[in-house]
Amino acid sequence: MANLPTPKIHPDTDRVIVVFSDVEMGAGGVTDDFPHSAFLADILETYNGAEYDDLTVDFVFNGDTFDLLKTPYLGEYPRHVTKDIATSKMSFIAAAHPKFFETISRLLERENRAVNFIVGNHDAELLFPKVQGFVRALCGGSERVRFPGFETALGSVYFEHGSQADSMFFIDPANPFIEYKGQQLLNQPWAAITLLDVAIPLHARFPFIDRLVPRDRLMAKIPELRELFLTMAWQYWGKDFWHKFIMMKDPLVKLNWTMVKDIIRQMTASSPDVGMDESWLARTVDRKSYEMFVTGHLHRMGSFYRGEKRVLQADCFRDEYFIVEEGKKFLPKLKTYYEIHLKDDHVHGVRTHEVMGPQTRLDQLPESLDVIAENVRNLLDEQTDRAKEMEEQEKMENKERDD
What we know:
By secondary structure, this protein is of the alpha/beta class. Helices cover 34% and strands 21% of the residues.
C-alpha cells in the first residue's frame, strides 16, 4: 500500500468521480505496458475506506483501459475481429490481471459504487455486447458495470477518451460493425489496421520503444527509427495495401483524402505523437452544456478554461519512461489519476494524484538507447534486404509474363 495518497474530501462533497485514463493492461509478458494491476487494485481499495462510506463513488476508466489492440489471437494480429476473437483476447488480459477484476467486484458490493468503461482506440472491442458481458461477469455481474460507448456524462462532467477527435482512429458510432463474408466484424479505423499490419507484429521485438518519452528526443537520438518507419510504411502503402484494397476488396482496408493527408503528415512530422482535431473544442465543448470536459488519449497532462468551462486533459497511467543522460538511463514517469468532487452534481473540487508505481524489472529494460539503436539498424537491414528480394521477384514475374 505504499505510495498511495491520503484521502482528502472537500467539505460538503456528496459524490466523487475517480478517473483513470490509458491504463493499457495487456496480456502479460514483456509486451504488457501495464504489468502492475495489483498496484492499481490497491489504489481502488482505498475508496472502500471509511472516508467514502457515505459518498457515491463513480469510477471512470476513460478509454484504453485494456490494450486489446496489441493482444494477439492464436499468435497473430488479425484485422478481422469478430465477437469471439475479441472475447478470446479479453480473456488473456483477464488472466494476466485478476486482481483488478476481483477488486472491482468488491467495490461494487456497495450500492453507491459504479464503474464506467469508455471505449478508446486500444480497446474498441468493448463495443461488442459479448465482450461487455464477459467483462461484467469478471466484475461480479453487477449492472453498475457500464459500457456507455465513446462518451458519458456524470453530473456536470463530460468524459470522452479523445480518439474520436483523432481522424486516424475515428470510428463511426452509427456503424461500429460491418458485415463481411457472413460475419460481423469490428469496423476498425484505418490507423488501427495499419498498425496491425505493419507495426504491432514487431512489438515483441521492441516492446520498450513505445514507452519512451518525449518522442522527438527518441527520434533525434535514433534517426534510424524514422528511416525504418518510412521504409515499412512505403512498402505497405505502396504495394501491400493496394493488393488488399483492389484485389481482395477487404472493406476494412479504406482509402480517402483525409487518410492520404494524415499519412503524409505522419511521415513528414518531426514528432510521431498522435494528435486531436482542434475542432473538437468547438464541436464538443462549445456546444455541450457541461462544466468540465475530461479527455485522455494524448498521454499528456493539461488543464485550461474555455470561457467558464474547464477542459482536463488526463495523463496516462501505463508505464512510461523519460529519456535522460543522453539516452544512457530511463527515469520512470509518475502515474496520474484524478478525483473530481461534486456537490449536487456540480464540480466542487478536483484532486490530481501523481504516484510512483512499481518498477519494471531491470532485466526487462534496455541498457541504453544505443542498444535499441543497434536493434533498429539490424531490423532496417532486414527490411532493406526483403524489399530488394521482392523487387527482384517482381522483375522475374514481369519477365515471365512478357515472355
